[in-house]
Design brief:
This protein is α/β, with parallel strands linked by helices. The protein is built from eight helices and twelve strands. It folds into two domains: about 120 residues, Response regulator (Rossmann fold, 3-Layer(aba) Sandwich); about 100 residues, Arc Repressor Mutant, subunit A, CATH 1.10.10.10. Helix content is about 45%, strand content about 20%.
């Protein structure tokens, strides 16, 4: 069965353009105009990918609420925000919620299609190529299932966070900001975006182990995994 994509966008013309471009590539597309209809639809069927606007009608943060609902249902569902809200705080908040990508409108259909296909290639590649499981002290990584455990407890990471963590672990001398940008496979990524992802990863480990200090900041360079 083809992959399903949910588009939550209150502008009917934009929503139609996105949907048509993706349907032409064979994706099953479900369209929603507001938070309530989207959540009702997700309760019936979870999408393989959600493309969300932030402002939905009178709800200035409706897209954030939709993202939060999806992540509570299944942390691994990737989310792309497409929005007119280009404020850095909005972008940081969207990434903290677990979004895979955050793009400020206007976004061309060609660019959108490229981002979607890139995301699915990454996900499909993980299922086809099973790197050996990694064990490093109290850390266990299963690359096939894209799962992480710390001291025997699961650490729920988004796809982007997972790739950043793997890059840290696989670079014993430290991973530069450029290394981590490449690990996200998201093209143009700002340093602050990487810093936000690192903060989010640290917090997830600390929820399990309040003494967690294995991700070290290398000022002027990047980060290291040191345990």
């Amino acid at each position: 069965m083809s992959k399903s994509i949910a588009i939550v966008e209150d502008d009917p013309q934009q929503r139609e353009h996105y949907a048509q471009a993706l349907r032409e590539l064979g994706y099953r597309v479900h369209e929603y105009e507001d938070r309530e209809s989207a959540i009702a639809g997700f309760e019936k069927e979870s999408p393989d990918l959600a493309i969300l606007d932030i402002i939905l009608g009178n709800e200035v943060g409706g897209g954030f609420e939709v993202c939060r609902f999806l992540k509570q249902e299944n942390e691994q569902i990737p989310v792309i925000f497409l929005t007119t809200r280009g404020d850095e705080l909005d972008k940081i908040y969207g990434l903290q919620l677990g979004a895979w990508d955050y793009q400020t409108k206007p976004v061309s259909l060609d660019f959108l299609v490229t981002r979607v296909e890139s995301l699915f290639r990454i996900i499909d590649g993980r299922t086809k190529h099973n790197d050996s499981n990694q064990k490093l002290g109290e850390l266990a990584i299963d690359s096939l299932r894209m799962t992480v455990q710390w001291k025997g407890q699961p650490v729920t990471l988004t796809p982007t966070e997972f790739e950043i963590l793997k890059s840290l672990v696989e670079n014993p001398d430290g991973a530069s900001i450029e290394d981590l940008v490449r690990a996200t496979r998201q093209g143009l990524v700002e340093d602050n975006t990487i810093n936000t992802h690192i903060l989010h990863i640290r917090n997830k480990f600390k929820q399990i182990d309040s003494a967690f200090k294995c991700i070290k900041t290398r000022y002027g360079f990047g980060y290291s995994w040191v345990c």
